[in-house]
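Support request, please re-run this one:
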Amino acid sequence: MDAPELFEAAQPPESSWSGGLGAPASGDEPLAVRMRPQRLDELVGQEHLLTPGSPLRQVVEGHQPMSVILWGPPGSGKTTIAHLVAQSADRRFRAMSALNSGVKDVRAAIEEARRVRRTGGPQTILFIDEVHRFTKTQQDSLLGAVEDRTITLLAATTENPYFSVVAPLVSRCVLLTLRELDDADIGAVVDRAIASPRGLDGAVELTDEARDHLVRTAAGDARKALTALEAAAATCLHGSADTAEDTAARDRPRITVAVAEAAIDTAAVRYDRDGDGHYDIASAFIKSLRGSDVDAAMHYLARMVVAGEDPRFIARRLVVFASEDIGMADPTALQTATAAATAVERIGLPEARINLAQAVVHLATAPKSNAVIVAVDEAIGEVRAGKIGPVPPALRDSHYKSATRLGHGETYVYPHDDPLGVVPQRHAPDVVAGRDYYRPTRHGAEGEIADRLEKLRRIVRRRPRDG
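Re-run finished. Output below.
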């Protein structure tokens, strides 16, 4: 069809067609659809976007025709916001997905919006889901219409728009960043779904342990939590004879951890992200890496992933470990860890588990050295103890007017002028002159650095050769 690929093909007459977005629930939709917020104030976890007069409120309430890019992880509320915008009665609403739309569809939507506007019709909101999946050409095709406000663009993406959306389009839009929902947010969503007439309407009970399990395995994704809750409730309400017998003595069926596990096929990991279990697993993970036990480290990585640990926390620990426990014994370890952290930010779970696993293998099997952290901590300790003598005159800034008169930089020797590239010269203040903070090991690449460093220090400090 020439018109954009839309969520539904029927257009109600005399309406602001939303392609199915914003339509009232009929009662037989999935729980996640029925529980979608009907007002902006019901949006969970995005309080930073809900202040009076905020760009999000202006877009949803129709006060200002500004184009917006919504950036956030899955289940954080991007499609919900699109639904809220679609409910506005004074604007046309078109929706397309970048998964199955092309330049032809985009141009058709723009031309239709232009025609409606010329005939005195309402402003058109064009919602594009997964906009990062559009090619550069497809994204460029939106620029003119956004610029002259033929359309008001509402785009959603799970990837950093500074990397995944062309710069001219980003510059024409307001970027709203949705935060990943935390455990309290997901818990509120689950509780609301249990009690709400739009949801389960109190038809089942949910034990505290099962609630914790649903929250943990959702990993910040409200849609995932509601889907799991719906499956667990269905098991209770329409499950086996054993389940029925187990609940016969109670007023309502009860969702236990066992029911939740069976419903979503995910074992409950005994892991409290905010308690001792969190720190115990993280500690065991780092100590397994330090001990070069790649298999144990992989086990603890798996436990954190399955438990719903924030992958950014894991990535940060790997980046720190790469310098703290490997350092110059394998300088590429930091590159691998940093690349894994970047992958987590750009890709997210579940795919980023592979990047984290690759970093774990590299770091666990790399030669180990803590010489870097020992060096910087000893230097910091001595600075804090007052060992902060004056900078030698030769090293002081000599670019300002009175520097020559003060003798700053006058005796400085430029190392590149020497064939060796290193010259005898005092760099450290007298109070720490000759202090060896960095003491390399003989492990991995650091053994070669140790040999080179001995020669460098001998030249720089005018130290005579041994023997």
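Residues 276-365 form a domain with the Zinc Finger, Delta Prime; domain 3 fold (CATH 1.20.272.10). The chain has four domains: 31-177, 183-264, 276-365, 383-460.
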